[in-house]
Design a protein that fits this description.
By secondary structure, this protein is an alpha/beta fold. The protein has a single domain, classed as Glutaredoxin, CATH 3.40.30.10. It contains four helices and seven strands, in the order βββαβαβαββα. Strand 4 (about 55-65), helix 2 (about 75-85) and strand 5 form a beta-alpha-beta unit. This is Glutathione peroxidase.
């Protein structure tokens, strides 16, 4: 099975970002959408990022249009929306699929490592969250309705145990 650090993503601005550059950091990986009932979570994610980034937290948002067509914009529209409405400063990937034949390999890896309810290897909706420790181990999966603030205890625990 590949390691999380074997994957690279394309950022919203078209750059290649190897996840190996995050080795030693706690990662929160989230599929996002601009027109979802959970979109306000972008603000909560930014608050987590501001609070914990100096301690080693990195967040990557993965815009996805697979759930109700709730991420219809292009890269420029997505970036502008996230910045203007929520002040997002954490990394955003290019728009991806998280389910199906065209699912990004990273997301296939995430759901295989941490299946959902009843062992499902599908993402149910926008704002599914995966928490990864500094060693690249996928530690927890959080449902879309779980607000970012509810992740603080799990993030703090991983930050305390990571190698500096």
């Amino acid at each position: 099975m590949p390691d999380i650090y074997d994957f690279s993503i394309e950022t919203l601005n078209g750059q290649t970002l190897p996840l190996a550059s995050y080795r030693g950091k706690v990662l929160l990986l989230v599929n996002t959408a601009s027109e979802c009932g959970f979109t306000a979570q972008l603000g909560g994610l930014e608050q987590l990022y501001q609070r914990y980034r100096e301690q080693g937290l990195e967040i990557i948002g993965f815009p996805c249009n697979q759930f109700g067509g709730q991420e219809p914009g292009d890269a420029a529209a997505i970036g502008q929306f996230c910045q203007k409405n929520f002040g997002v400063s954490f990394a955003l990937s290019a728009k991806i699929d998280v389910n199906g034949a065209d699912a990004h390999p990273l997301w296939r890896h995430l759901v295989a490592a941490k299946p959902g309810l009843l062992g499902s290897r599908r993402i149910k909706w926008n704002f599914t969250k995966f928490l990864v420790d500094g060693e690249g181990r996928i530690r927890k999966r959080f449902a879309p309705y779980v607000k970012p603030a509810a992740l603080e205890r799990a993030i703090e625990s991983l930050l305390r145990t990571q190698k500096h």
